[in-house]
TrEMBL record:
Signal peptide coordinates: 1-19
Protein name: Putative cardiolipin synthase
Residues forming coiled coils: none
SUPFAM superfamilies in UniProt: Phospholipase D/nuclease (SSF56024)
Keyword entries, A-Z: Signal
Location of the PLD phosphodiesterase domain: 161-188, 402-429
Native organism: Pseudomonas kuykendallii
PROSITE patterns found in the cross-reference section: PLD, PROKAR_LIPOPROTEIN
Molecular function, one GO term: phosphatidyltransferase activity
Pfam families linked: PLDc_2
Amino acid sequence: MRRHLLLLVALLLTACANHVPIEPSQALPAKDSPLGAALIAQSRQHPAGQSGFRLLSSSTEAFIARAELIRAARQSLDLQYYIVHDGLSTRALIDELLKAADRGVRVRILLDDTTSDGQDDEIALLGAHPNVQVRVFNPLHLGRATGITRALGRLFDVTLQHRRMHNKLWLADNAVAVVGGRNLGDEYFDVEPNLNFTDIDLLGAGPVAEQLGQSFDQYWNSALSKPIEQFVSFPPSARDLAKTRRGLTDYLNAAQIEQRENYQRLMDYQDHPRLAGWLNELIWAHGSAMWDAPTKILKSEPDPQLLLTSQLGPELTNVSEELMLISAYFVPAEDGLTYLTGRADAGVSVSLLTNSLEATDVPAVHGGYAPYRKALLRHGVKLFELRRQPEQEASYNLSGSSESSLHSKALVFDRRKVFIGSLNFDPRSILWNTEVGVLVDSPELAGEVRRLTLEGMAPALSYEVRLENGRLVWIAEDNRRLHRIDREPGGAWRQFNAWLAKVIGLERLL
């Protein structure tokens, strides 16, 4: 009976894997595209080696930048994402991507296999276009057919499957890139009615975009990246793609009526393009792209040289006056606690903006963060937790949503340098997942991020957590009056989830 059961499990987990030739490819030279040539000419007006930057702090700007970069591209589009959710914003971008491919633009799409879970056939439809290639990173090879077998397959290979590619990158003609915290989906562009993420992206042009192109190539050509066609029984045909595109057109036409307000806001770029103006108003400064090597996920204890955090190390060590952290998911662990309290003890003003228990979309993460609060506060670290504000005018979602959860990831060093990327300050980002981001040496750009952070820390938007007589209290402002809350804000179910995560020791996996 036991042998028969094991055989049945093995048969259920067996994946259909087609042999598909894998050919390496590289980012195309930026100078060969009109977009790249224009930016090279613009860069000559600034010191050698500088790149141009613009903050994309609102969800509308973040969407418009991606859509217009598709329209501006003439030779290549490289997209790398952890999560892609279906919805109006995603379908609108896919429509633009296919139109770019129609005019001869090479499109390479690299997705973490979390996104493709159960969606192989749908994703493979994009690859039916001769100018579109789709690969999945760290794919599950066992049991892809059903939800149950996928869960079993991941369980059988948990040491590798819990390590994910968390990178978010959008690159046009190897000349202009967008990095930051946003995945693709309506919740990231203020279209989802129940939850919208407050996030921050950075548009980078020039040398930093070419550096990000190098990072994309490393992942694209990694042995861990596999063509999606390997995992479908019957590769879709051109006819299948044409049918899908007709359905996509019908969906967008219907959305123009049924989701009129969101449709008009997102599609405003079609009549009022903004990218050209943004590219003429860039902040030029020295910047460096930083990323984890894709082989990071193969290491049980990552080589420090493979970690993005090692590249950030000098900035973390040298900060001398002020350090601001913005992290949606914050679990410092013992090493982070030692670092932050050490900086505070050395006279550095250290402040953190993260989610409160009532605002986070992952209450378990709060259970990993909460035990460190008292120690941080004793050493003078200032803690601010974004509030949930479903019925108030004030909202720290820069796109104007009335309910939001913080999803941003940024660091501001001494009001001079700023890091923006996909990196959360938790063990999952530091040890298990791969990440990407950009460090910019610009007091002007750092000042913009600092100003937005201070807005988010305001008592009408965030709780300030304080330590009084050994107990935590939360300071908030309602109706223009400050008041103190003695019990952690958040419902019973969220309290239970956070407590359970703490009890069973999930910290290193959060």
